Amino acid sequence: MLLVASTARADDEKPEVIKMRFVERGDLLHATTKIGKLFDRAAYEALDSGFTSTVVIRMWIYPRDSTEPVAFNLLQRQVLYNLWDEVYELRFDDPSGRKVFKEKRKAEALTRLTNLDNIPVARLADLPYQSVYLLAMEVELNPVSKETLAQVRRWLSQGTGGGLDRGGAFFGSFVSVFVNPKIPEADRALRIRSQPFYRARP
Length: 202
Description:
The chain is of the alpha+beta class. It has one domain (4-194). The chain has helices spanning 41-45, 106-114, 146-158, 169-172, 174-178, and strands at residues 4-5, 16-18, 21-25, 28-34, 53-63, 71-82, 87-94, 97-103, 115-123, 132-143, 186-194, 197-198. Strands 1, 2, 5, 6, 7, 8, 10, 11 and 12 form a 9-stranded mixed beta sheet that branches. A 3-stranded antiparallel beta sheet has the order 3-4-9. It is globular and about 55 Å long.
């Protein structure tokens, strides 16, 4: 079931508003979007440097009229150019496990890295019909904080509920990220917000 977009209201939120696709599958809500703007030309050229590029993606679902999220998800994606095999090796980690991909071309590696296709983002049971919601996302390229990376690894290895929960410290960071934004400790960062959406009754 495709979710219905609600009429957006004007606001002064700092996150960029981009259109996302929401679909119900089974008992989960899935989202599709792109984060290609995270990479400028320098970041793109660095993909074949032989050093790992790391992307950390945090996602919150919250009611339009509240800053109290109802779901949180965390993803980590990495790409490394294997100089010997001349191939881009990608590792995607989430609480359900790790997926590994290989791409021969840099442009194709970037596309796979930055396309978020049908990512589970919330349990439908947590999203009542007709209530209006937003998806907020913070995306970081190469976070430099060792504490942040340690938290990411720990949460991904111990994530409960497939990651669609309050996420402990990550869940609590929503307010500081989207209400009182601070400069992230990363090479580049995006703050993104979806269009409002709601679940129409069958």
